[in-house]
Design brief:
It is a single chain. By secondary structure, this protein is α/β, with parallel strands linked by helices. The chain has one domain. It contains six helices and six strands. The protein has a four-stranded parallel β-sheet, with no helix packed on it. Strands 3-4 form a two-stranded antiparallel ribbon. Strand 3 and strand 4 form a beta hairpin. It is globular and about 50 Å long. Pfam families: WbqC. This is WbqC-like protein family.
């Protein structure tokens, strides 16, 4: 079984985080989320992937002035674009018939429709809800400033260790434990945790633990 590293894992803050994000989290006794890092475009920070009837779909939250260099904590969500309606329609289409959709859908719908100004506030509330549903420890730290690991001991880098550009297939650090998905004959790994929660419900935490047991003993560098 994979042993927990004693360092504190430094993570980015994702939108409806992918499954590998939580598996990585389980390897460490403590997690610190860096909200003072520079925002990185085309990462999981503002997007997630779900399984529709005929394809894997990307849901991306538009941000104000996303092309400019700015701190993640200062990033505002662009509600002038009608992304919220589209996201919820896609989530409902993907998982409306999933076994546990009716148990969790209202919670996520309510969080999204609070329409917080900042991406960090939206993602923090979604993360907290996901941790609770997964029965994982809900405590974590938020950075007070940018964590420079070249000058900080006792921390392990996890920011952008999991990235959409690496694709959906495990890359050697992250295995997969298959579960029954709503669509498709071939299992698609590392989708948003929404896929796992809606399909497996209270069994989702067990799936994460089984996935963790399939990981290499070495922690990600």
């Amino acid at each position: 079984m994979t042993q927990k590293n004693q360092d504190t894992l430094v993570l980015d803050l994702q939108y409806f985080p992918c499954i590998a994000y939580f598996v990585q989290w389980l390897k460490y006794p403590k997690v610190c989320i860096d909200i003072h890092e520079n925002y990185e475009k085309q990462s999981y920070r503002n997007r997630c992937y779900i399984m529709l009837a005929n394809k894997v779909a990307c849901l991306s939250v538009p941000v104000v002035k996303g092309n400019r260099k700015q701190l993640y904590k200062d990033l505002q969500i662009d509600y002038d674009q009608k992304w919220l309606v589209q996201h919820w329609r896609s989530i409902s289409s993907a998982y409306g018939k999933a076994p546990f959709y009716e148990y969790f859908a209202d919670d996520f719908h309510n969080i999204l429709h609070k329409k917080p100004c900042y991406l960090v506030d939206l993602n923090l509330e979604l993360l907290t809800k996901c941790l609770k549903l997964l029965k994982m420890p809900e405590s974590f730290d938020l950075s007070n400033n940018y964590i420079n690991l070249n000058h900080t001991e006792g921390f392990r880098e996890g920011r952008s260790a999991i990235h959409p550009k690496k694709g959906f297939q495990p890359d050697g650090q992250y295995g997969t434990f298959n579960y029954a998905q709503v669509f498709g004959k071939q299992f698609v790994p590392n989708l948003s945790v929404l896929d796992l929660l809606f399909c497996e419900g209270p069994n989702a935490g067990f799936i994460l633990q089984k996935t963790l047991e399939m990981q290499p003993d070495t922690a990600p560098e």
